[in-house]
Amino acid sequence: MKFNNSIALITGGGRGIGRTTAMELAKAGARVLIWDVGAEDGEKTANEIDSQGGTAFFSTVDISQVGQIRGAYQEIKNRWGLVDILINAAGICNAQPIESITEEKWDRLFSVNLKGTFFCSQVVMDGMKKQKQGKIVNMGSVAGKLGGIAAGADYAASKAGVMCLTKSFARTLAPYNVQVNAVAPGVIETEMTRQLSGGKWERYLDTIPLGRIGSVLDVAKLIMFLASKDADYITGEIIDINGGQYMD
């Protein structure tokens, strides 16, 4: 897959799936814009891309703040032009039981996972409509289909919302040749999931037919496919990637 000179915006691009996706897109020729709340992680990723001959630019953005989203996007337009690809990879998670979820924790998680995904998508859509092309790939989760098991109920609910948003944006943008899809990972080894599991992956292996934990590269490759021309006739889909753990 080639993304020569395409402008790709990756939220949460400093760590985990977002970081790997950003690096893989850059290797394939995309000009990569990284948004992350963690300046150190985001700058490290951008610098690594640059050192490998790619093109990257990092901005510190908290996607729970709509003003920051709009301000950072205006900077992108002034510096680079309109975004061709948006990867909504930013997200937070917890594994608290329902009884322990407070209003503050609920609001914080939804403000990033659902509100942030919505407004990042909203801010790029006018440019994609003008260009009559574009790709948006959202980060769902198997938890959004099964409910909170390893993750909390609030996380599962937010991801169910993301997957519903995906279909809404897909219907709205289809007449403009903009495809909007989501990936729904199962158990993927990231810093976030290591913290949730305590590193005890063995308990999941018996539930995964392929017999291994997924990697961030597994998910990044699927995201890249959905962001490519090869997926021009796919929109409004939620693509499972879980080693067969959940078969819809």
Structural features, described:
With 248 residues, this protein is of the alpha/beta class. It has one domain: NAD(P)-binding Rossmann-like Domain (Rossmann fold, 3-Layer(aba) Sandwich), CATH 3.40.50. Helices cover 46% and strands 16% of the residues. The chain has nine helices and seven strands, in the order βαβαβαβαβααβαααβ. The chain has helices at 16-27, 39-51, 66-79, 103-131, 143-146, 153-173, 191-197, 202-205, 216-226; strands at 7-11, 31-36, 55-60, 85-88, 134-139, 178-185, 238-241. It has a seven-stranded parallel sheet, sandwiched between helices. Strand 1 (7-11), helix 1 (16-27) and strand 2 form a beta-alpha-beta unit. It is globular, with a radius of gyration of 17 Å. The model has no long low-confidence stretch (mean pLDDT 93).
